[in-house]
Amino acid sequence: MSPRAAWRLETLGFGEVYDYIDGKVDWMAAGLPTEGTNAQHPRAGDIARKDVPTAGLQEKLGDVKARVEVQGWDAVVVVNDRRVVLGLLRAKELAGDPEQPIERAMRPGPSTFRPYVSLHEMLHFMVDHKLDSAPVTTSDGRLVGLLLQKDVAAEMEKK
Amino acid sequence: MADSAETKERCKGCDREIDICAFCQEPGCAAAICYGCQNRELRQTVPQPPHAHGG
Ligand SMILES: [Zn+2]
Ligand SMILES: [Zn+2]
Description:
The complex is a heterodimer.
Chain A: H1 3-14, H2 24-29, H3 44-47, E1 54-55, H4 61-69, E2 76-79, E3 85-89, H5 91-94, H6 102-105, E4 107-108, H7 119-128, E5 133-137, E6 143-148, H8 149-157
Parallel strand pairs in A: 1-2
Antiparallel strand pairs in A: 2-3, 3-4, 5-6
Helix pairs in contact in A: 7-8
Chain B: E1 9-10, E2 17-18, H1 35-41
Antiparallel strand pairs in B: 1-2
One zinc ion binds at residues 21, 23-24, 26, 29, 31-32 of chain B.
């Protein structure tokens, strides 16, 4: 289903219709309401930045840093060729020895979050744990996008 | 017994001893939480992140 089709279904009153890569089962598996209460609230997958830069394990940290800095990013998600999240580079990791491979520089196995997670709860967690960004993935670990605390806060302020 | 200097944290949810906060993975997190409590609070199914060891 295209995002547009999902959006149309929602406007037609079908309640929560989620469309993200392979993620439809996540929604059901979570046993979350499929209509009603939360239908108009955006969730992590909706505002996660899909344009977050990614890098492969074998790349050199300095190269990746140079590449993403010009795009204005200080976070990079490390993925394999199937876009499964393997690690994360935040500002701290990006500041490491530029000669080392990403594999050594990255923070491996970061906590990842499902697209249907409520922004309200994510914001709570991100503030409590002083986390600026959190990767959103499908249940099989594939990257959906990077959720930024400032985006979540801005979204919550709209209410 | 190899990781002599490692300090354990306690989950703020269930008080279980954990190696590191599941959410931020920062040692000494003031709001340290285990995977189980994190996923219950966020109402997400338990993820199996690639097992990270060492570091
Ligand atoms: Zn716990
Ligand atoms: Zn924490």
